[in-house]
Amino acid sequence: MAKKCPYALRRSVFALWGLGAIFLSSPANAAGLEVAPTTLQIEPSQNANGITLNNSGALPLRAQVRVFEWTQKDNRDLLTPTTALTVSPPMLQIAPGGTQLLRVIRTSPPVAEGQEAAYRLIIDELPPAESPAPVNAEPTPPTKATTALTFLMRYSLPVFLGPEPHPTIGTQLAWTVEKTPKTWTFKLKNNAPTRAQIADIEAITADDKRIKLANGLLGYALAGQTMEWSVPAPVTQQRIVGYEALINRFTQALNVSSP
Questions:
Q1: What is the CA 182 to chain-centroid distance, rounded?
Q2: What pLDDT is stored for residue 168 in this prediction?
Q3: Model pLDDT, residue 3
Q4: Which residue among 107, 148, 172, 250 is least packed, with the fewest CB closer than 10 Å?
Q5: Roughly how many angstroms between the first and final C-alpha of the chain, as a whole number?
Q6: What is the largest CA-CA distance in the chain?
Q7: For the range 145-148, what are the long-range contacts, defined as Cβ-Cβ under 8 Å and sequence gap of 24 or more?
Q8: Residues of the signal sequence (predicted)?
Q9: What does pTM read for this prediction?
Q10: How far is CA 125 from CA 89, 96, 115, 221, in A?
Q11: Percentage of the chain surpassing pLDDT 90?
Q12: Radius of gyration of the chain, Cα coordinates, nearest whole angstrom
């Protein structure tokens, strides 16, 4: 039986790796943007849903918000501009200690019953509107790099259209494990009509002990897609008889063709 676990958490196509994380880091420090929730579900009966942005920093916070269709191919996440969803407001400024409701609005027909559409909400935290130059600093001529929009932090949040995935989705997932002395690679074919979020993989030994192979979120396999993740090989001589993981926040056995 599945057990639920409160897991914490240009017009061309571009790819992003590691989209399981809430944000993609950048060299600069963020001003203190907090986002809740970190995953947004828009049910078939809903036309919109929202997230709350909070500025926990001491300075005003500026951000740009965009939404992209999210697909997967060749073990990569692909983001493509879309008109199926829109956001309001797309540009925002939050005072220190203030909050802002961000609405994500469906502008397309609902997805077919039992199906799911996946998107990514990209929130770019922007530099302050005016950053004073150092005293006696020489002016810098504008270049293509300096005139382009820069950001302090980029947050990437999943948005799904459709019903919540069924708790026992694990039965529709086909796994294989390729083992080398240094790494084990888990390859997942998602045969379900909805996403599979994978976290906390454990190996089960013949004497029913658990060996932690991966801590935290590994990523997603979208409906009908194949993804893979490599983890360090465990140091053990015990025979492995099975595996478990958090699948959409429920502990479930992995349907592995050969342990």
A1: 27
A2: 85
A3: 55
A4: 148
A5: 20
A6: 72
A7: none
A8: 1-30
A9: 0.81
A10: 14, 14, 33, 27
A11: 71
A12: 21
SS3 annotation, 195-235:
CEEEEEEEEEECCCCEEECCCCEEEEECCCCEEEEEEECCC
* 8 Å CB contact between 126 and 62: yes
How far is it, in rounded angstroms, from Cα 187 to Cα 169? 16
How many helices (H) and strands (E) the chain has is answered by 1, 21
Residue 73 has which token pair? Answer: 């191919």
Sign of CA dihedral 120, 118, 40, 50: positive
The parts of the chain modelled with pLDDT lower than 70 are: 1-31, 130-149, 258-259
As a whole number of angstroms, the distance between CA 152 and CA 171 comes to 41
Complete domains list, the chain, with CATH: 12-129+145-161 (2.60.40.10), 169-253 (2.60.40)
pLDDT of residue 143: 43
Q: Would you state the pLDDT for residue 130?
A: 61
Residue found by looking up tokens 């056995």 in the block:
253
Q: Which of 225, 161, 165 is nearest to 190 (CA)?
A: 225
For residue 197 the two structure tokens come to 């979020």
Cα(62)–Cα(116) distance, integer angstroms: 32
How far apart, in Å, are the Cα atoms of 102 and each of 3, 54, 55, 93, 105? 32, 11, 13, 12, 10
What are the start-end ranges of the H helices in the chain? 144-147
Task: Please give the Cα distance from 30 to 133 (Å, whole number).
Answer: 20
